[in-house]
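SECTION: protein entry
WANTED: fold as tokens:
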Amino acid sequence: QLHVVESGGGLVQPGGSLRLSCAISGRTLEYYAIAWFRQAPGKEREGVSCISSSGGNTDYTDSAKGRFTISRDNAKNTAYLQMNKLKPEDTAVYYCATFFHPQPLCVMHIRMYDFWGQGTQVTVSS
């Protein structure tokens, strides 16, 4: 069983930056893909970014490309989401998730992810 804990959310002005962290305990992560999802009020949860088990492959939803960067440190069992140039439409609860996936490509299919954190609120507002 893996335990996932997100941190780093908060209130930021439009154009600002935040760095989310995802600490995962219970197992080494070398064979696990990791992704960030978000859910805004009244909307479905959507994929934001994913990173493969090795860290060699990443993917982003179109709205995150060029602004967000996902990374991971397997030695620290931690993943990160650096978010720059934040917009009000980025406001949501951000979730980190992981599943066993020792493949070269990551995926953002929500149903494939087995282990989830409780989420961290990101609010972009002036």
User: Anything to note?
Assistant: The chain has a mean pLDDT of 97. Residues 81 and 103 are 21 Å apart (CA to CA). The two ends are 40 Å apart (CA to CA).
